Amino acid sequence: MAVNDGSAQFEGRLSEIAASTEALLDRLLGPNPAAGERIRPARLLEGMRYGSLGGGKRFRPFLVVESAALFAVPREQSLMAATALECVHCYSLVHDDLPAMDNDSMRRGRPTLHKAFDEATAILVGDSLLTFAFDILARPETHPDPTIRAALVLGLARAAGLGGMAGGQMLDLAAEGRFAATPPQLDLPDVEQLQAMKTGALLRYGCVCGAILGGADEYKRLALDRFGAIIGEAFQIADDLLDVEGDAATVGKATGKDADARKATAVAILGVTQARKKLFGLIEEAERALAPFGADAALLKSAARFVAERRA
Ligand code: IPE
Ligand code: IPE
Ligand code: MG
Ligand code: MG
Ligand code: MG
Asked: pTM value?
């Protein structure tokens, strides 16, 4: 195997970064209040730990750490940003599963948060994980330069909120026909936009995060931005294919739900075969976007393959 082929290394690196993310989250979500906090209510802390520890592929942390590694950013710094992003992702899952949203009972192979606890706790766990992400980003350990920290905060806010993930979730629910007598008819570009927001924005931020931390020049920042956007689009198509073709035991969450819920997906519009074709086309595009980094980007290229081929 060629030395610059990252595929052999990928699985090892993903699990290594997952373990480091887990350890850092475990430490940050300890029982002792941080400066400025009063107490950490046990039930809320327990819920935050349940919603963020002990599961998940940690693919977003991987993107942050590996994109930052292109600029030789110290691992302690990139892991802080990675963990912040994972907190937003975990919050998005807790809220996505709520009865008022997708109404799911299983996540990461175990009961969803509102099943294991209760709905009010799940709402507050989501609120607290979201807020905690910005707490983490604002800490000097994340980067000594406050300008960089402010850029990280702004980037995450834009990716997570109104014009990003939360906005995409709104469009996702609207497309089901929940808010109007006649559901909006979404064409492929509409669905692409919705998915670029609900899923793409956080993955894209993960890639751009490395460039922000590393003080990358515009050319390299844009390359990572493009890579992240493509990976983001591919990731949701893969998720939607798993909903059709995967089994719950392997995927760790209920499958076969999107069609019944009349979710707007690329798979619903194109069918499985064409959607898969589109997915693999995107992976090639993602790999091309990494050209400015040459052999240094081998692991990120394998990450693109992983997005398309994953079974969970
Ligand atoms: C699931 O994300 C939700 C989507 C955005 C499609 P992941 O597939 O990354 O979920 P975990 O973190 O591995 O559980
Ligand atoms: C999730 O999309 C996007 C989020 C912002 C959480 P889905 O609703 O398809 O994710 P799963 O299938 O429940 O993980
Ligand atoms: Mg959803
Ligand atoms: Mg869902
Ligand atoms: Mg899904």
From this structure: 0.97
